Amino acid sequence: MTKQTFEEDSPQLWELVNSLNNQEIIDLLRIIFANRPTEVFIGMYPKNILRTFELSEENPVCLNGTLIQINTEEAFTEKAIEWEGF
Question: Whole-model pTM?
Answer without folding.
Answer: 0.65
